[in-house]
């Protein structure tokens, strides 16, 4: 398993993986990450300051990923953990926890004080990992992610 920063050549494979996982999880195609225009250009989307997207690669195949970026229209001290999705081959191996730690380390190194995440109510395994990592539930959303169908909001102090 290799955990590394996304490369431009990863875009097509990553877009297919992310959409497949979203469909598998029953995520609506509107008001969620599914319709985000950057899904087809993840490398380019994370070239902004204080942003990065990481992938898990096994034998040349990308099987998961997650990103950190400043929270859109939120406090400058808050980042967002974005598009953390793993295909079936990556699940149950502890790689989600490794990815989470890697992303949160990146966030701390870039001066963020808190990390925000949105998810869907049916994504219980993800919520369990977030809770275990120290994320706490919020009563409402922060910033403006454009994901109106994500109704679970969480925040962690870094």
The CATH superfamily label reads: Gcn5-related N-acetyltransferase (GNAT)
Please give the CATH architecture.
3-Layer(aba) Sandwich
Q: How is the CATH topology named?
A: Aminopeptidase
Cα-atom radius of gyration: 14 Å
Give the uncertain stretches in residue-range form: none
Overall body shape: globular
What does it look like?
The chain contains four helices and seven strands; from the N terminus they run βααβββαβαββ. By secondary structure, the chain is α+β, with helices and mostly antiparallel strands. It has a single domain, classed as Aminopeptidase (3-Layer(aba) Sandwich), CATH 3.40.630. The chain starts with a strand and ends with a strand.
Secondary-structure map with pairings?
Layout: E1 2-5, H1 11-24, H2 42-45, E2 52-58, E3 61-70, E4 78-86, H3 95-109, E5 114-119, H4 124-132, E6 136-137, E7 152-157
Parallel strand pairs: 4-5
Antiparallel strand pairs: 1-2, 2-3, 3-4, 5-7, 6-7
What features would you highlight for this structure?
4 helices; alpha+beta; seven-stranded mixed β-sheet; 158 residues; 7 strands; Aminopeptidase
Q: What's the quick description here?
A:
The chain contains four helices and seven strands. The chain has helices spanning 11-24, 42-45, 95-109, 124-132; strands at 2-5, 52-58, 61-70, 78-86, 114-119, 136-137, 152-157. A hairpin with a 2-residue loop joins strand 2 and strand 3.
